[in-house]
Design brief:
With 104 residues, this protein is of the alpha+beta class. The protein has three helices and six strands; from the N terminus they run βββαβββαα. The strands form two sheets. A three-stranded antiparallel sheet has the order 1-2-3, covered by helices on one side.
Length: 104
């Protein structure tokens, strides 16, 4: 299970007999009467720790931002993909921090 790149949402199946937490790539079935606030707490306390524990990066780097006073973690995954904690990566699925790490 890999963490999605989007904020979580609640979705129903077509006949509204099942409800799911969706984070962009994972669909997790939950109680039919769960609210979005309950879903967020459930996801953060139970699902996210499992995702973090099972999603081990092959390599990772700390990269200082050129524009703001922040340091981002760039990760290279076993499947050959990269990820970054910055806003640019969330929107474009790529960023200048990853490009810096690729040349290292």
């Amino acid at each position: 299970m890999k963490r999605g790149r989007y904020p979580i949402a609640l979705c129903f199946n077509i006949d509204k007999t099942c409800q799911y937490i969706v984070d962009g790539s994972n669909w997790i079935q939950v109680a039919i009467d769960m609210t979005l606030e309950q879903a967020k707490k459930f996801y953060e306390t139970l699902i996210l720790p499992i995702i973090k524990k099972t999603s081990l990066a092959q390599r990772q780097w700390k990269v200082k931002s050129d524009s703001v006073d922040k340091i981002y973690t760039v990760r290279f995954w076993a499947n050959g993909s990269y990820s970054c904690e910055c806003e640019g990566f969330k929107f474009r699925n790529n960023c200048k921090h990853i490009e810096k790490c690729k040349i290292l």
